[in-house]
Request: fold
Amino acid sequence: MKKTLLAIFFGLLFLQCSSIKEHNEHINDLISEKNLKADVDFTYKKLQRFQPKLYWYISKKELDFKFDSLKSTITKPMTSFEFYKKLSPVVASIRQGHLIVSPSTKTLSKKEQKELKNKGIGPFSQFEFEIINNKLYVIKNKSDNKTIKPGAEVIAINDKNTNELISEYYTLFTSDGYNKTFKRKRMSNTFPSFFVNENGIQDSLHYSFKQNDSLQIVCIRRKKIEPAKISKKEDKNTVTILDTKQKKQIKRDKSTYGYNETTRTNNRDLKFIEKDSSIALLKIKHFALGKPSRFYEESFRKMQLSKTKTLIIDLRNNPGGSINEISNLYSYLSDSTYVFIDPYLVNSKTTLVEKTPFNTSPLLAKILMTPFYAPVVFFKTHKDKNGNYYSSNSYSKPKPINKNAFKGKIYVMINGGTFSASSIISSNLKGSKRATFVGEETGGAYNGTVAGIMPIIKLPNSEIKVTIGLLVVAPFYKTTLEGHGIFPDKEILPTITDYVNGKDPELNWILEDIKKNTTIPVENQKDKKITLK
Reply:
């Protein structure tokens, strides 16, 4: 039995290695016109079968025309990547931010991945970028070349004009609806990925920087990270020996806050700005990781005990995550019994049976889970009088607020990176008039998005992957303006100077607004002073 299991293991390993090798050998092969057109038809049929509200932001007639026109432009064989650059803009015209087309690129074996990691961080990872007015700026320089200052504009990379690259990459993906802020924020973070998809992983890049009205060309090479050296004397003075109880507490805290070992930062944080704890800042980077229920329970209990009067929630650059987490958080923010979202709109009675959340799971997991999952979702899906299919969920039923729900003033900071789940909770906070919003329009649409369960469809000939959402996730509160995000009550757009100097104009405005609206009794005005940090 043991020998049989070993034989199966090594057999699967061999097949995987062979598959990777074969994939990489044929990645730049030309694909026939017939097969490319077949992939176009395959894509549209899958979208029509699984994507609900496919024609939310584009008419069927217009989308039919775009797919037909795409086929008419295929007049000669092309590579998979060339085809990807033609297909992506057509899929992007559907205007659903979760609907993503990914190119077929070189696959690294586990050995190659390990070797690359040991070689150090790449030339892109040594900088943090921000796009403002279609220009790429350096916000943070982590390379060894300190002549490149934050605020430097990246004019070109390997002699390729960055403005032209940004304009081209913008056509390959979309936001929800007609929103403009999401694409800029996403591109700021994913520009390197788009470049690597087209040009491969690079060990060095030639950057052309513009700073102080002068042009500087610099070669940035992959940098190996050497472990910090600690002397024996220093080691004796600085190393703290933790007992078992302390180790358990550290482990618990990391789990609660969603600690990221790579960035060494918490995913969720609560801090008090004033000494009297009257103002709390709740920053949530992502609605995922860690133990959110425990974090919110402890945080809101702490605010209640501290008699916090004002809560500032930072959802900037939060890409979304778990519906369960945002519903739980909302129970601490709502001021009355609430319904969080609508029942999920799906394309058909069988959609959630055909494409399950564990479609990419190992075969054994599928075999074990499907008999239990399929009947449940099938009978939970019903057809309404208009012929639409809905799948019920617990979040579409009335829920009471949490016993430690916050009663004071709430501000929410948002920007184009506020997307998906972070936009859903923002919609409800905005619609219920529970919070004041500061920043810029969210990247996610006010009236919801198509996401939830998101299977990946692989095209048979080009091996391009298309990620499709199966559920319309719509907040309880809606707006009459379709295709836009949550607009701020106070619009503030950080400048490149703000980024370079580490200023936070949105937070500063909120603190000034709190100060302006705080009434101090006349008899205490001489002695009591509000200090803002």
Observations:
- Confidence is low (pLDDT under 50) at residues 8-13, 520-533.
- The CA atoms of residues 152 and 212 lie 8 Å apart.
- The longest strand covers residues 204-211.
